[in-house]
Amino acid sequence: MKKLRIDILSDLVCPWCFIGYTRLEKVLAQLRIDKHLQPEIHWHPFELNPTLPAGGEILNQHLQTKYQMTAQQRQLSQQKITKLGNELGIHFQFTADMRIYNTRKAHQLMMWAARSQQQTPFQKALFLAYFQEGQIMDDTDTLLDIAVAQGLDRRDCRRVLTDPGWSSAVVQTEKQWLEAGIQAVPAMIIEQHILLNGAQPITELHDTLDGLIDTLPSLH
């Protein structure tokens, strides 16, 4: 048995983060069998839109303003994302009234979830709630419901959301990653020294991890 540490920077409103993780998940499932692998995943915050007000804004308008995307460019991009998602079992639901949200609260809960080793199931639930179910991702009760469904305690989660210290922790952590040179997500750091930017193709991701695992010591 070999242990492999993977640190992931992501934001729940980033479709490429959802795609990138799902590809990783499929690769790790195979490597668990082939290489007797024990992956250890740590999630870290990276807010794409930390200044968005409560309630967010219409996604299509946001893409046009922030990235200067035309309607055609936006449509082609979302079609590509939807196609790639379908290949992975993700069913993206891009609608005309879909909104994009400030994700600070979600990141606070994600940081706290590390204490109970519930980060990954919680992150997956956040992706699904936003991209497939169209839930309001800056709403406290929505986030609490998602957290509780993953086995987290509602009272503890509510304290995390109301404690300014957790908000500050998110900001400070993001600052440290920016200073380390991370400028976009998804970003994966393998064994704390190999950086993989973007949603890596499954074959390339498999080859990278497969080769690295052979160099790792076995657990006893």
Automatic annotation (TrEMBL):
Organism name: Vibrio gazogenes DSM 21264 = NBRC 103151
Protein name: Predicted dithiol-disulfide isomerase, DsbA family
Single Gene Ontology MF annotation: oxidoreductase activity
Domain of life: Bacteria
Gene3D superfamilies: Glutaredoxin
CDD domains in the record: DsbA_FrnE (cd03024)
PANTHER family listed in its UniProt record: GLUTATHIONE S-TRANSFERASE KAPPA, THIOREDOXIN SUPERFAMILY PROTEIN
Alphabetized UniProt keyword annotations: Isomerase
Ranges where the DSBA-like thioredoxin domain occurs: 6-209
